[in-house]
Amino acid sequence: MGTVLDGKAIAAALEERMRSRVEAFRRRPQLAILSFNTPASRLFELMQVERARALGIQCRNEVLDSARVTPEDVERRIQAWNADPAVHGIFVHQPMPPQIDPQRISTMIDPQKDVEGIHPQNSARRFFAKARIGSCTALAVMELIDSTGVPLEGKEAVVVGHSEIVGRPVSMLLLDRLATTTVCHVATNRAGRLEAHVRRAEVLVVAVGRPRLIPGAWIRPESIVIDVGINVVDGKVVGDVEFETARDRAAYISPVPGGVGPVTVMMVMLNTIEAFRLQGGA
Ligand code: NAP
């Protein structure tokens, strides 16, 4: 039976390391969070605010009504935070309501304050393996993989999902580490080829948002499985991978909840500290 990667313990260790960095600053970094009134967004915001406060990072948060918010409301808020020297990091929750274009929003955030790494300038730097601030979820995935101590060079890595905030940045980070990386998506599944790709993955990252998309029987024995998906089934939070059966085959597997999620929150904090430093904070 594989080892379950403890995201909470990894997050706690990261927090400990960050605390001394924040304590050494003369000023406090400040994170501004824009969230929407959906249960998932409110929960994530709560976790962000809690961890920021525990670390001594100042936090201001604004919750917008998903049904009524206009693109101008979001843009006004971002412009105000861009112009405010007391704000060092800006994080806008995704998914955004359908009337808001996330690509347009990503171009509006000051790249030095973009703690989710979604501004085109930050995405481009990632392409050249020179990211200063990267996708928090993608960094969390790499942190979990690194916690296994298994070297990635030459490994067969398969990423399922090619979204701009998770699948694509994860695949870039795996490439940077010289893993042979395959990216699967909805068309891979439609073509009936998802199983074949998953079966040869020595490192599998699944970020889709469909419960039980990956049956445990598909998992390559002794592989590393990182499940990013968050789904609610019968009131219970589950990932995209059939956990119990997958655990029997994998060498390491991240659970949902308690895997990628807590580490992602800490990556938001790490990026806020990085953004503070980039803006001359000390
Ligand atoms: P997203 O933007 O909806 O992207 C989902 C991706 O999955 C898309 O690339 C989509 O391809 C692909 N896909 C859809 N159906 C598929 C199928 N049947 N087979 C293979 N690929 C399929 O979602 P996201 O923002 O990347 O998030 C993915 C999941 O991770 C969600 O459950 C989300 O809640 C969770 N998440 C967790 C964290 C965390 O910290 N734990 C952070 C962010 C997201 P097409 O675009 O081609 O349709």
Describe the structure.
This protein is of the alpha/beta class and 282 residues long. The protein folds into two domains: 27-115, Rossmann fold (3-Layer(aba) Sandwich); 136-261, 3-Layer(aba) Sandwich (Rossmann fold). Helix content is 43%, strand content 16%. The strands form three sheets. The chain has a six-stranded parallel beta sheet with strand order 1-11-8-7-5-6, with helices on both faces. A three-stranded parallel beta sheet has the order 3-2-4, with helices on both faces. The longest helix is centred in the last third of the chain and has 19 residues, at 260-278. It is globular, with a radius of gyration of 19 Å. It starts with a strand and ends with a helix. The mean pLDDT is 96. Bound molecules: NADP nicotinamide-adenine-dinucleotide phosphate.
